[in-house]
Queue: 2 jobs
Job 1
Amino acid sequence: MIELSQTEIEAIRHEMSLYEDPGAATIEALKIVQERRGWVSDEALEAAAVVVGVTPTQMEAVATFYNLIFRQPVGRHVIMICDSISCYLTGYEEILAYLKKTLGIEFGQTTPDDRFTLLPICCLGDCDNGPSMRVGEDYHGRLTPERVDAILAEYK
Amino acid sequence: MDETRVLTRNIREGREPVWRAEYEAAGGWEAFKKALAEFKPTEVGELVKEAGLRGRGGAGFPTGVKWSFMPRFEERPEERPAHVYLVINADEMEPGTFKDRLLMEGDPHQLIEAMAISSYAIGADIAYVFLRGEYVECQRRLQKAIDEATEAGYLGNDILGSGYNLKIYLHMSAGRYICGEESALLSALEGRRAVPRHKPPFPAASGLFGQPTTVNNVETICNVPHIVSNGADWYKQLGAHKDGGTKLFGASGHVNRPGLAEMPLGTRMGDLLEHFGGIREGRRLKALLPGGGSTPLLTADHLDTPMDYEGVGAAGSRLGTGTMVVMDETTPIVGVLKNLEHFYAQESCGWCTPCRDGLPWVERILTNLEAGKGNPGDIELLELHTKLLGPGKTFCAHAPGAMGPLESGLKYFRDELAALIPDDSDTLSLTEPANTASNSQV
């Protein structure tokens, strides 16, 4: 089993202090571990479970439920393209096809240079700017194939 | 039509937020001071009840009535549990909904002040904002507002010498639409899978960690400071039809100027569409979802509908979140329904069978219809599912919500859907299962 860094442990303990039941910080713990490592490996999940004081099984139940927790390695930048109704109406399918062609990957895959992972996401709350996607933490709306090219170039 | 700016009065173009000094200069935090000085907690609740404020998150339940379900401990402090909670549902994921993000990004202090007053009203000592994981800009701004409010003595112990104590924390979620269901949200906040809970007990009796809890939507609660400042009568007269107050309305999809606008509740649907520039490229309206993905479709026959709870209800749909998803005459209805049902199938928590198995079945039928591979009887099968997954058949409102657009789609566009079944199709074929794998495949 791996050991978490002191910074990670302190950040998790801080989150635990915000709840009547410290064990409620499972999701925060997974996010803290993921922020540093990009994804949550079995070893990191077990180590986080020890800090929070829950079993690895409880931690795994949570990790596999929430779609922003990655249980497999992802690229340096995760692209999440909104596939919900407003973006569907404003050209999501064309943008998705363009992204897949440009990156040469399907949903759930990572480019061979580890630069991008492509995932669908439900409604991003950016409906007046559809079609919309998120790269890392950044929102990008009113997508056209040309804009997609320019946006991808920003992420090395 | 002009906007009536109450909740959005401080919000600027570009959403550059209003911080404490500016918020206070505009009269901010005065409502909280007034509530502490002039009202007993239950009196704030009475005022909100009298104003007729109803939930803006989709269900439209009267807020003051919800608060009145909370047990009171003023007369028997020795029985007070360890904590009483207010939880703000900021898990904005309803398809086509983007209104709470504006309120949190543009005027974070308004939400924090609203939470302080509402917590006081229900006797809560801890309040959480349950924020969807993607809204990191909201997180930064709300945290700064909480820090500023704490520094000013609006949060903490013995607030402004009143003896009232309150702490506010942010919880960043990690995805999944079902977290917006209030009991599932409580499961998520407790660090577990977001599976809905049986009701009763309702959260007011046994909510977060088994303690008395109220869950309110962001926009709902942002009305509270204004009601406290200006009174119930002022609030009621803001409405244009039956319900009082303003609403953040929005339009996305096939309108010329998609966006948000704060208007009187009860504004005519056609006037709202006009405000958002009308239908793109001079086309005609085919249908719209009046308030997010789970509100039944309305058509061009409903343009005179007053957009409030009563008005949209009478037209056969629901006000929902008030953010319209607009489709022009070129839109194939099968594609719209397939997109929506894919969403609901994917976002089912999997707890109960009708929802877990029924929604993928519905999606598969619609996928086949769209691909020209429909079978005789498919329309009737879809119709059957609207009954099998309807209200009372499932553990929570997820599947019934998913059936809203489907049932209305069958009602208004039955011929269009039936015409997709090929004439030569007379035998049932085994077809590829629809891809309903969750996003969490990675």
Note: The first helix of chain A runs from residue 6 to 16.
Job 2
Amino acid sequence: MKKLKYMVTAVVSVFLLSAGIHSELRAENKGQVNKGEQIYNTRCMVCHGKKGDGEGPAGVLKKEEAGGRVLEIRPRDFTLGLYRFRTTATGCLPTDEDLTTTIYNGIPRSFMPPLKEMHFDDKVAVMEYIKTFSSRFKDDPPCNPIAIKKPNWVGSEASVNKGKVIYKDMKCWECHGDTGKGDGSKSNEIKDDWGFQILPFNFQTGELKKGSSPENIYMTFTSGLDGTGMPSYEDTLKEDDRWHLVSYTLKLMGKLDKGKKVH
Amino acid sequence: MNETDQTGLSKFAGNVKGLANTFIGSVFRNGKPTSDKTRASAVFNNFFLHIQGVKTHINTLRPSYTLGLGLITFFLLVIVVASGVFLMVYYNPSVENAYQSVKNINQVVFAGKVSRNVHKWAGEGMIVFLFLHMARVFFTGSYKAGREFNWVVGIVLLVLTFALNLSGYLLPWDQLSYWALVIVANIMQSPKELTDSLGLTKYFDVGTYTGNLFLGGSIPTKESLNRVYLFHVMVLPMVIYVVVGLHFWRIRKDGGMTKPDLFNTKASDMGIMVQPKKSGGIFPTHKTYGLMELARGKTPAVDKDVENTVMSWPNLLIAELAVLMFTLAGTLIYSYYMDAPLKEFANPLIPENPAKAPWYFLGLQELLSYSAFMGGTGLPGLALLGLALIPYLDREQDNVGVWFTSKMGKRIALESMVISIIVIIAMLAFAVNFGWLRNWFPEIPQLVITFVNPGTIWVGFMMLWSLCTIRRTGSTRMGAMALFVMFLVSYLILTYFATDMRGPNWDFYWSKSQWPIH
Amino acid sequence: MYSRFYLSVLLISGLLVLAYLGFTAYDSFMPEWMSYQFEYRDYLTKNAKDDAAKKLARALPLEFTQVYLGEMNKVDRCTNCHMGVENPLMENTRLPYKKHSGNYLVNHPVDKFGCTVCHEGQGSATNTKEAHGKGHDTHWDTPILPLAYVQSSCAQCHDTNMLSKSGGDKVAKGEALFMEKGCKGCHKLKGVGGDLGKPLDKVGRQPIAYFTMKHIVGEHTVFNWLKQHFDDPRAIAPDSAMKVKLGEGEADLLTTYMLTLRPDEKPKSYRRINFNEPPVQNGETLYKSYCSACHGDGKKSLYDEVFKRTVPAIMNPSLLKVMDDTNLDKILKEGRTGTQMTAWKKTAAGLTDEQIKEIVTYMAANRPADRPEPFRLAEFKGDLSHGKEVYDLRCAVCHGTNGKGGEDMLGVSLRSKVVQKMIDPEVLAITVRDGRADTPMPAFGSDPFGMSKQDIADVVAYIKDFQSGGGK
């Protein structure tokens, strides 16, 4: 009898406790979103717009590359829930970590500044607020991040040469050009999911927006850049081949020449 | 009348007929030599040949003894003079026209290009063979007492040869000449470093003075070209003719070529063509020579082993002719395939990078990069002085005429060579990898670097090593040997190092092919 | 034994000497050009129309010829191989004895002009390699000009007006392109132009060693350098900040024009330059020559990856609305220190006051008629500490916390002399309030920012305080 009583108490207390935690969590979430909105309005709204539709007061940003191409940089429209810089499979939502990473590092060459000095909780708050712009975060199931293990031969000469063949076979040059200058034959015909013309990346201009480590480049091939012309090669290329392509990309970016003596 | 006419005419006809013979007979006072007497008079009655002895010791004819090096050097000089006169006809020593006149020699003058090549390569060949000759003389001990002064004369010839080559290098007035001129002017100005660091420049600016003496100003101009040309075609050649004459004369007066005391090869073993016959010889046994009694002291020695001498005519003359022809052939073939360099017209605004002195001064330029004074004045001066003093400091008379003196000599030479190669390469590697005092202590006074740099340390090491050798072996000859070997090795290595491994900005590269393109 | 040794050395060396003397003599008697002269004579004999012509052709002397141009101190020996340049019979033959194309030689006879005066190369040389001056080992700074650039030589004696009409169109087009593309915005020519790039005087005749040839594909020549540098400046000089946007074939035209810029002057008797009125430079052409390379049409601001800063929209109506002519004139004359903007006054980049005035007038043509609503800044007292709060919240993200703008920043520098000294604070306040249309600068006075007038006054006070050392 006594045993039963204990059990009931235990069950009830566990239930009560969990309910309490749950509500507390929700409250915290709500509070976070409010805090996130506040930060968003001071720091992000000028470009991404009050409604998160990418049409902030600053408008479209223009940038002239060294080669003379003029890029039109449109701040991300959060309402569609389409994100380029993910560690999940194509079509998936980004993980929370993907979003905070972008907020933390910024995006090179696009005026999205790194917010390294910002408190971690604030970033999480902004991230939570940004997620409220799209219903996908409520409706779609979350995806698991793709695991990466970099082989140690990446960047070797043999790998670069294999990558060069794949670059040719997979017609990367149609957009990115034979020497990776982003001047391929189809480079002027690409439009993003919003219907604006976009230009393929010129490997010689600088850092990749996603980051230029071999892992980042590999992830670009694997996850694709959703919303742009860059597809995912997770199904069409073997893992090793994608790494070979990483080697060749590094070569085109000039990251493999560093060791040589430059006068 | 008629008869006399006829005799007159026939006399005349006879004279015409015999013209060739009488003419030759008037030139060569002897007929074709048939006996040793006439062979002897063929030599001493001829202006050009009488510099040689009537008889020659068979050791002199041994190719492995002299290697013909001195003679090759002399014949190269003859070739240089001949081709030089030819070039002088077309060359125009003015800043405006010098370059184009050299181009014209290359482009339109008949055989001009080959002549210029011959002049250039024979001139530089003189340096190479002069060093080889010097080494031969040194290693066979031929500078020893009795011949000391001729060794000094040889050193003077070395300096003159350098000067002649250098002054010729500057005449085409192309980029190569111009910037070599600048470098050489820096070498000439090098005493300035010492006076600067001693604070004496204000009172006694000897560096600027020597530099100006050479350039006729502070930068290369038409003045520089004028005086360099004057030196190249007049002053230096005249001096070198006299000094060469002196050198040859002293060979005779100092007793001819050296030979080993224990020379026991017989002429017959050596296949010498004409054997001196006792009966018809010039030293008949039944005669004495009163003249010899008049002479005292260091007279030309009539050698003890007279039986080992042969007539110079034709033995020596054939050998000399062969060497002449060999030299000529070598020069001509080399010049036929290798063109003397000629770069762009001199442009004071565009320095050659690296600006290099002619190759024979590159060793100095390497030392110059450590310290201007030491590389330009101190060490070369010391080296020349040291070379000149060798015969006065080493007066041992053992085994003169034997290559490397003795077994120990061979060992010492080899030892010194190995040691010097190791030490000098280690020194260069150290300087290239770690820099020198200035890199570690930027504030250090220049005077310290002037006296403590790889060049001076190397010379100090050479001297110490030589003294150690003297102490160890108890022989000054061994010490001199060690010093001389180390001098040759360092000249060779430094020259090679500075030619091939010093690229733009005097930076180190493993080879010329690695130099960055500009 | 020794005698035999010496005799054999003598014999072998003697034979070698004879052989090589023979080779040398043969080379001198039969130089390369001689064989071309033989071919030329054979061709003429074979194609002679009648016996008289045949006889004449057979009697053609084979000899060394040269054209000496005393006034230019030049010797051209090209006609030793190119024998048929003036012979109409050689119209359809092959080089080297082919007739010169076109009728250029009618007015430029070889015996008066030679060849290298137009074609470059080493006129005095007597073999193909050296005469054409190709390859590093010829050590010749002016190798033979490719036909694409050969018109550049015409400009030595002829003026652009004449060239544009008859046979020198590439030079004329190149010069027009040079003015239009705004090259002088960065490069000085005859003392006028910006100082971001190297002065271009004499550039066409600089020695090869003057150029960095490391990345040049093909032969290391000045024209190859120029062409490839126009195609992609950073491929040739990695640190170059040069901006070029050229269409098809325009690089060739500009290269041709560059090659006309040379220090030497031909003797008077050769020159046919008519000193016409210099082309009229109005505000528009001046703007193109000196401003357009960086500012384009001046309507939109743009971040420039090479300059590493935002290039402002200087002809944007909303800028002109607040900026009067005096301000513009001042900025043009003094430039913006710390940025790529050159000071254009006479003593710096070399524009006269009148020319600057022309440019200002041209720019001001875009100014809207209505004046901005006055802000009356004087009525507010700026609060520096509140100003800093507002600045950090609203401005810092684009202009940087220190106000310097610069790399990867959308905003311009607020610390420059122009903002700090030349411009009225009232203008700043109006700009903050109304923003600047067609640039990322939003209007902070309205939604969604809704800064109050006091906020704006505080921020302007804070920005103006930079010059006295504030906001570090």
Note: Confidence is low (pLDDT under 50) at residues 259-263 of chain A.
